[in-house]
Amino acid sequence: MIDGRTPLAVRFDGTREEAEQYDRADPLGFLRERFAHPDPDLIYLDGNSLGRLPVDTPDFLADVVRNGWGRGLIRSWNDWIDWGRRIGDRLAEHVLGAGPGEVALSDSTTVNLYKLAWAALDLAPDRRTLVVDADDFPTDRYVAQGLARQRGLALRTVHSDIDRGIDLDRLRAVLDDDVALVVLSHVAYRSGALADMAAINRMAHEVGALVLWDLSHAAGAVPVRLTEDGADLAVGCTYKYLNGGPGSPAFLYVRRSLQPRLRQPIQGWFGQRDQFAMGAEFDPIGTIDRFLAGTPPMLSTAALVPALDLVEEAGIDRLRAKGRLLGELTADLAARWLEPLGFRLASPEEPDRRGSHLTLWHPDAWRICRALAEEAGVVCDYREPDRLRIGPSPAYTRFTDVWDALDRTRTLVADGRHTRCSREKARIT
């Protein structure tokens, strides 16, 4: 049975019949038909980059367009204006382990990261150091670099292991009473390594620093417990395991006790107290809405409503249990079939130290990734250096999908079919 009590370690016998048995016993199997599968032969293992389309989303969006926009016109804002906070409360309760009024839907992950990092640094003007993970997702590092340059701060990097993620001893070594803010990802974008949020928060708080978490590869895949783990700030996207669609709005989290003390840099009218009074000076509202900026994109916001219905129906603990098993099956079959072909696991070996995606190293990973998509009907993605990233989403990926994908991979590589592809990288990998 796949539930929140599933053991961490499972021994697979490696047969497709066993994968079929797991599919038949899957309590989340009903969700698969709630997503669009226009090409039944395609195996999609890139849910960690862009989730599949929920089948209810097109009709829901069409209703918002035809009736909300077409019939309601400006009057629809009476309902729309609070969607960001209402969706934020749903994310807080069912995905992020936070309280009502602590999460809001807003802008992009990059913009939210900038807003919250700027506000946190402003809160500690006497501290002159910002800490980032040298191997973190690029946008996080770039925002930190820009803020450090603008404010004349020292940017201190912690060098995490590219496969195993952040090392607590290395992080502790770069923390002192000059650090204002630490920026980290809960799940590493490349390897899927899962950071110990509670331990890191405690470590930073001991020196008086705040921590800003990027939850983009965690939200909807692993249980996040922001309140329980003592988190200060967080951001994340909604188009990966939350299936909100390409470019769907991001979310931000601010611990309630911090909200009155933080003032964000983008002083837009959606963060203003008594918004429609059109006051002459910016006076931020006293709630999570003070971290909003401009008018939200309502059509892409609307796409999150049916998507979150599915996440809530599944339950984050069951999604985590299945995602962990899918990852174990992937790692098990890779060890049996792909290691003899030059692959190795480039993620933590322990299942409880990974999110829902994992990575395999191979010296020709780019051409293998491309050949899988073009010739074998398997979509995953490539990350530098020489890594094939595999992201089975527990909401709609079957165990037989994983078995078939790795079977196609071993056949393709054993036959050398990937060597016919160009070594030149595409813009999108």
Alpha-beta content class: alpha/beta
Helix content: 25-40%
What's the end-to-end separation, in Å?
A: 36 Å
β-sheet strand percentage: 5-15%
- Rg value: 22 Å
Total number of strands: 13
Large-scale geometry: globular
Segments where pLDDT lies below 50 for 5+ residues? Answer: 4-9
Which H/E pattern describes the elements?
HEHHHEHEHEHEHEEEHHHEEHEEEH
What does this entry look like structurally?
The chain has 429 residues and is an alpha/beta fold. The protein has helices at residues 16-25, 57-71, 77-80, 83-96, 109-123, 138-151, 168-173, 197-206, 298-302, 304-314, 316-338, 365-376, 399-415; strands spanning 43-44, 103-105, 129-133, 154-158, 179-185, 210-214, 233-236, 251-254, 344-345, 358-361, 378-379, 381-383, 387-390. The strands form 3 sheets. The chain has a 7-stranded mixed sheet, with helices on both faces. A 4-stranded antiparallel sheet has the order 9-10-13-12, with helices on one face. Strands 1-11 form a two-stranded parallel sheet.
Please sum up the structure shown.
The chain has 429 residues and is α/β, with parallel strands linked by helices.
Describe this protein with a few key phrases.
four-stranded antiparallel β-sheet, seven-stranded mixed β-sheet, 36% helix, alpha/beta, 429 residues, 13 strands, globular, 13 helices
How would the blueprint of this fold be written?
Elements lengths: L15 H10 L17 E2 L12 H15 L5 H4 L2 H14 L6 E3 L3 H15 L5 E5 L4 H14 L2 E5 L9 H6 L5 E7 L11 H10 L3 E5 L18 E4 L14 E4 L43 H5 L1 H11 L1 H23 L5 E2 L12 E4 L3 H12 L1 E2 L1 E3 L3 E4 L8 H17 L14
Parallel strand pairs: 1-11, 3-4, 3-5, 5-6, 6-7
Antiparallel strand pairs: 2-8, 7-8, 9-10, 10-13, 12-13
Helix pairs in contact: 1-13, 4-10, 5-6, 11-13, 12-13
